[in-house]
């Protein structure tokens, strides 16, 4: 009897506890018959068995690890940290993470990046919407990367967060959910009465290149029209999504932001945004902080 070399199973090593929990629920499992191979004494049979073993291993690897740029039909099962949707390949259970995918949503996605124990997917088209669907209150929710779950009901957000904490307690804290002390430690999340306008500090960035959504890319921006004050576009350090308000900060802070937006591009002021490529320009950040009695602008 001989065992498969360790390098043939290198992709089964899971370094992330939360991924280990997800993978444990899949149907893919290697039995002892899969891991142990019998080699006859006959050399020809030995070679044939070796070739068969390689083909079997390769077929499993291809099914287990989707190729980069491969297009898949997926269904989001749960939420991971930072609002990423957790999906699994139907025939193997391999884990894929996708931005802007929410539990219950079926969609078409393309594999954009492969890692050791999971892959990242870019959503191309939604086939059926997720459960607990609500209208996002923010007009920038589809473009801004700050609030990824605004179109998910608050009750569903609480359930997702509680499940994440529960898995951390079990797999990182090493406390079994069958332990008598588990329920004493793992308490239900208490909902917050204030869901918006709760932050007392927000930082906005000035930029020389305004980021536009796909439906507005045909518009040509020249001069000051290409300047922006807002938040960094998802995945870009040099492009700014221009915003007039943010639902996270207080209403007085939003009024200050709107006033700055109306005046900072005035040519008479001679102010220009900082360019991260040429290292030119004057304005870099606008920091608004709300105190008990005062509002600070940096």
UniProtKB/TrEMBL annotation:
Family the UniProt entry places it in: Belongs to the class I-like SAM-binding methyltransferase superfamily. RNA M5U methyltransferase family.
GO molecular function: RNA methyltransferase activity
GO biological process per UniProt: methylation; RNA processing
Signal peptide: none
Full protein name: TRAM domain-containing protein
Keyword annotations of the record: Methyltransferase, S-adenosyl-L-methionine, Transferase
Methyltransferase in keyword set: yes
Annotated region (Disordered), positions in chain: 41-60
Gene3D superfamilies for this protein: 2.40.50.1070, Nucleic acid-binding proteins, Vaccinia Virus protein VP39
Native source organism of the sequence: Gossypium barbadense
């Amino acid at each position: 009897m001989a065992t498969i070399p360790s390098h043939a199973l290198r992709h089964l090593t899971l370094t992330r506890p939360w991924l280990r929990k997800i993978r444990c629920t899949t149907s893919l499992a290697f039995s002892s018959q899969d891991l142990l191979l019998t080699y006859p004494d006959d050399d020809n049979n030995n070679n044939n068995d070796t070739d068969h073993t390689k083909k079997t291993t390769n077929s499993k690897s291809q099914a287990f690890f989707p190729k980069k740029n491969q297009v898949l039909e997926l269904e989001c099962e749960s939420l991971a940290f930072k609002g990423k949707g957790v999906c699994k390949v139907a025939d193997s259970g391999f884990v894929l993470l996708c931005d802007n995918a929410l539990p219950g949503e079926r969609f078409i996605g393309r594999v954009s990046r492969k890692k050791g124990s999971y892959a990242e997917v870019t959503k191309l088209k939604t086939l059926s919407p997720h459960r607990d669907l609500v209208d996002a209150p923010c007009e920038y929710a589809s473009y801004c990367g700050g609030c990824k779950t605004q179109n998910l009901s608050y009750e569903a957000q609480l359930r997702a967060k509680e499940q994440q904490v529960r898995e951390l307690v079990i797999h990182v804290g090493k406390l079994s959910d069958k332990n008598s002390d588990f329920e004493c430690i793992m308490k239900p999340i208490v909902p917050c009465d204030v869901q918006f306008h709760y932050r007392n500090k927000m930082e906005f960035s000035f930029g020389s290149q305004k980021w536009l959504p796909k439906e507005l890319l045909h518009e040509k921006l020249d001069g000051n029209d290409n300047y922006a004050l807002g938040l960094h576009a998802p995945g870009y350090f040099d492009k700014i999504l221009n915003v007039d308000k943010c639902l996270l900060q207080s209403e007085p802070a939003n009024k200050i932001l709107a006033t700055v937006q109306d005046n900072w591009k005035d040519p008479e002021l001679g102010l220009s945004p900082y360019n991260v490529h040429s290292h030119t320009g004057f304005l870099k950040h606008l920091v608004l902080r709300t105190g008990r009695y005062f509002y600070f602008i940096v």
